[in-house]
Amino acid sequence: MTLDPHSDESTELSQKEAGAYYTPSDVAAALVKWVVRTGSDRLLDPSCGDGRFIAHHSNSVGIEQSAVATRVARERAPASKIHRAEFFSWAAGTPERFDAAAGNPPFIRYQMFKGETRDRALAHCRGVGAEFSRLTSSWAPFLVVTASLLRSGGRMAFVVPAEIGHAPYAAPLLEYLVANFKTVHIVAVRNKLFPDLSEDCWLLYADGFGRHTDHLQFTAVDTYNPKSRPPPVGVTISVTTWRSIWKRRLRPFLMSADARDCYHQIANRQDTARFGDVASIGIGYVSGDNDFFHLRPSVAANLGIPLQFLQPTVRNGRALPRERLTKRTVDKWRVADEAILLLRIPKTLRALPRSVLSYLDTDKGKQAKTGYKCSNREPWYSVPDVKVPDFFLTYMSGKEAALVSNDAGCTCTNSVHSVTVKKGEAMEDVLRAWASPFVNLSCEIEGHPLGGGMLKLEPREACEILVPSALTLSAMPTRVVDEAVNVMRSWRHYGDR
């Protein structure tokens, strides 16, 4: 949990803000049994919460910021030493070193992991050889700093977000682990350890601090059965292979070896393109105040806004038809009086119509003007980065990502990706291949799960989607690819009830 250690309880953050979701007791017990080898082993939990890890070993130290959780932890683990402190500050000053560490570090996304706490964390990580960007979530630096407090030969076992399998900021963590531990074993768990959370959790076991390894151990299980040792290793992954072929991601190892071999071979074929070679993929515009800048046709007509200042727009991917967005569809939106007209005012235009000036001067306009995005651009009412792309690509998708032709000349918000063709002839190949199982698989591999069964494709990820030639597609091992698609969808819980 996260708060100022000198504050009172009234300032404590919510469970979601603090990233505090407590581990099932049987899981905590199993991880502690693995890391603790003798009664004299000194155990550290860097974010001990209510004490359910340290309660399983009396020779323990727990760090916790929440006054409420600290009280509960002291009652649950009376033999343990518990410090109410901010972990990164405590770690920078403690001379103590540990034989083992276990826990469930707080999962605080980068938007809230900020300020002096983040600066201390990243500085400590740099000092021990792990370089994180400011876009990292809190749990990864927690693990690096925790490991740096181990004695030679030390061990650690942690519950970690499934983002360890794909997030860019997880790569520096794994690089640190293989450079500093004899063994690193990641256990992917499909069924949720925390049933009330959309976030999936995996397990990390590391042993032999002070050594290094040239491979990662990986196991995928449907359900974790808490025992005093990890599940058997499923596959041994060369660190070189992990870095070069799979771009420092572990999610591809959820698939069969046949599927990985097929994907790698097709990626290396000369007649296979990357989507980013054929088209530019980017996010749509950010208005700064969607309610103000998006008008219903009836409202625009009553205000007398000239048509040249109104650009039809796609507000989100759910509005898109499957393959082509036509003027007929936009006309249906108009008849339904949906708020699909973007107030688009050129940045260089100073002489504005009276109707537009009147709308800018309304209470809604005055409120929009003070917003963060609007107040930091000149003029505040000119929405930047408004493009009319050739295609739209869904940013977040259910079963599969949709690529939709923009026949209606619409623009789009940042809830949808804009696709501008660079190579027209090659784009025809993309369109022919898009609905194929292999491109669906490539979207699963290059993208990542969002939660709730959704597939998320960032622009940089979409650029990496593989587009094989028609000849290669015709020779595809259908069963292998279909099975891999189903496996990857099952791991992001698409179709789960």
Describe the protein's architecture and organization:
The protein is an alpha/beta fold. It has two domains: 9-252, Vaccinia Virus protein VP39 (Rossmann fold, 3-Layer(aba) Sandwich); 279-491, no CATH class. The strands form five sheets. Strands 3-2-1-4-5-7-6-8-9 form a nine-stranded mixed beta sheet, with helices on both faces. It has a five-stranded mixed beta sheet with strand order 11-20-16-18-14. The chain has a four-stranded mixed beta sheet with strand order 12-15-13-19. Helix 18 (437-446) runs parallel beside helix 21 (478-491). The radius of gyration is 26 Å and the shape is globular. The two termini are 31 Å apart. Mean pLDDT is 93; it is low at 1-19.
Give a summary of the structure in a few sentences.
By secondary structure, the protein is an alpha/beta fold. It has 2 domains: 9-252, Rossmann fold; 279-491, no CATH class. The radius of gyration is 26 Å and the shape is globular.
SSE topology:
Layout: H1 15-18, H2 25-35, E1 43-45, E2 60-64, H3 67-76, E3 81-84, H4 87-93, E4 98-103, H5 115-127, H6 139-147, E5 150-161, H7 170-180, E6 181-189, E7 201-209, E8 215-221, E9 235-238, H8 239-244, H9 257-267, E10 273-274, H10 275-278, E11 279-283, H11 290-293, E12 294-295, H12 297-303, E13 310-314, E14 324-325, H13 327-335, E15 341-343, H14 354-360, H15 363-369, H16 372-375, E16 391-394, E17 396-397, E18 403-406, E19 411-412, E20 416-421, H17 424-433, H18 437-446, E21 448-451, E22 454-456, H19 459-462, E23 466-467, H20 470-474, H21 478-491
Parallel strand pairs: 1-2, 1-4, 2-3, 4-5, 6-8, 13-19, 14-18
Antiparallel strand pairs: 5-7, 6-7, 8-9, 10-23, 11-20, 12-15, 13-15, 16-18, 16-20, 17-22, 21-22
